[in-house]
Task: inverse folding
């Protein structure tokens, strides 16, 4: 199992080579629907492992105050290029697990292909960090990638069915669980939109 995905160089290499099969190129439908149901009204949202960062502008347009973070300088450069100067300051270079977020706690954390990019040994740390960064009543919502068999190589590293319930059991309650409608080929049939709320 590859642990190199825990290092920014792994991702820099892929962005530099244009090997980004996870890159959606826009805003997935389920996030657009979520934003209709949940306008931000100035509340704060975090986009961890933001990559090209397409969602940042959509979140802002829906009234959210976004912070996005990625530890790959290549990803941050792409996000800045994607979003332009109006949103560049919202995208920071840093480690999700260590960064001191000035805007924490967040009312919403948006997940897409970040958890499945992490070596599985980091999943418990991810769950603890999410809980620590979410305000009471805040939501973790986004896309979660599942595989029936444990990942022997990755990324992406699929979750086992039911695994998120164990990961988040202490702090977050599942409220919405539905298949994703517009998955990219590498995630097709294995991606679910899920919403959890911080207790
Ligand atoms: C598969 S990409 C997904 C990018 C984006 N979420 C998307 O949907 O296109 C995973 C991203 O997570 C970033 N990443 C991985 N570990 C990280 C960490 N500890 N802190 C911040 N970013 C991280 C990588 O640099 C990479 O850009």
Result:
């Amino acid at each position: 199992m590859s642990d190199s995905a825990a290092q920014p160089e792994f991702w820099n290499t892929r962005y530099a080579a244009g090997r980004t099969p996870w890159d959606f190129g826009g805003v997935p439908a389920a996030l657009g629907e979520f934003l209709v149901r949940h306008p931000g009204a100035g509340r704060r949202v975090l986009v961890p492992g933001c990559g090209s960062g397409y969602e940042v502008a959509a979140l802002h347009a829906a009234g959210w105050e976004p912070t996005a973070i990625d530890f790959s300088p290549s990803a941050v450069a792409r996000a800045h290029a994607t979003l332009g100067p109006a949103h560049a300051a919202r995208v920071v270079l840093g480690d999700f697990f260590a960064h001191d977020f000035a805007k924490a706690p967040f009312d919403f954390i948006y997940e897409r292909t970040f958890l499945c990019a992490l070596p599985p040994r980091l999943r418990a740390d991810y769950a603890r960090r999410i809980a620590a960064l979410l305000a009471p009543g805040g939501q973790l919502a986004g896309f979660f990638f599942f595989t029936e068999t444990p990942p022997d190589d990755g990324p992406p590293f699929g979750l086992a069915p039911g695994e998120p319930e164990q990961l988040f059991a202490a702090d977050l309650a599942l409220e919405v669980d539905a298949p994703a409608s517009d998955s990219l080929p590498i995630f097709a049939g294995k991606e679910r939109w899920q919403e959890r709320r911080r207790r």
